[in-house]
């Protein structure tokens, strides 16, 4: 079993930056895919970025160049650095572990965090 806890969200002005963290507890996560999703009010949960156990990263087109996903296996933590925040980035950000790619489609794993709110507003 793996438990995930996100942190680092908050209220930020447009153009600002945030670093979200996802801390895992429980079993070793070094061989698990890590991912970040986000869900805006009234919308479905969308994949933002993934990082494999081999540290390969993939980003959704909407965040390429502004978001950076990383991981520290020793700390059992995944990070999402968000630069040049825009109002449309406002959402609850969730981390996920244990998923896999089926072709180009990412199948989310069983482990989810409760989410951290990111609000971008002036």
Q: Estimate what percentage of residues fall within beta strands.
A: over 45%
Shape by Cα distribution: globular
Largest sheet: 7 strands, mixed
Fraction of residues in H or I helices? under 10%
Per DSSP, the total helix count is 0
Estimated structural class: mainly beta
User: In terms of per-residue confidence, which ranges show pLDDT below 50 for 5 or more consecutive residues?
Assistant: none
Euclidean distance between termini CA atoms: 40 Å
Overall mean pLDDT score? 96
Radius of gyration in whole Å, from Cα? 13 Å
Query: How many DSSP E strands?
Result: 13
Could you state the order of secondary-structure elements as H and E?
EEEEEEEEEEEEE
What does this protein look like?
The strands form 3 sheets. Strands 2, 4, 5, 6, 9, 12 and 13 form a 7-stranded mixed β-sheet that branches. By secondary structure, the protein is an all-beta fold. The chain has no helices and 13 strands. Strand 4 (34-39) and strand 5 (45-51) form a beta hairpin.
Notable features of this structure?
0% helix, 7-stranded mixed β-sheet, 4-stranded antiparallel β-sheet, 122 residues, mainly beta, 13 strands
Question: What is this structure's SSE topology?
Answer:
Blueprint lengths: L1 E6 L2 E3 L5 E9 L7 E6 L5 E7 L5 E3 L7 E6 L4 E6 L8 E7 L2 E3 L2 E3 L3 E2 L3 E5 L2
Parallel strand pairs: 2-13
Antiparallel strand pairs: 1-3, 3-8, 4-5, 4-9, 5-6, 7-8, 9-12, 9-13, 10-11
């Amino acid at each position: 079993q793996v438990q995930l806890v996100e942190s680092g969200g908050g209220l930020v002005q447009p153009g600002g930056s945030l670093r979200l963290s996802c801390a895992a507890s429980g079993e070793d996560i070094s061989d698990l895919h890590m991912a970040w999703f986000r869900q805006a009010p009234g919308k479905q949960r969308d994949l933002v970025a993934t990082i494999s156990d081999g540290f390969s990263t993939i980003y959704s087109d909407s965040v390429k160049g502004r978001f950076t996903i990383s991981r520290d296996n020793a700390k059992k933590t995944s990070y999402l650095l968000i630069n040049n925040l825009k109002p449309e980035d406002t959402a609850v950000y969730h981390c996920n572990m244990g998923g896999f790619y089926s072709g180009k489609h990412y199948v989310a794993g069983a482990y989810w965090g409760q989410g951290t709110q990111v609000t971008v507003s002036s």
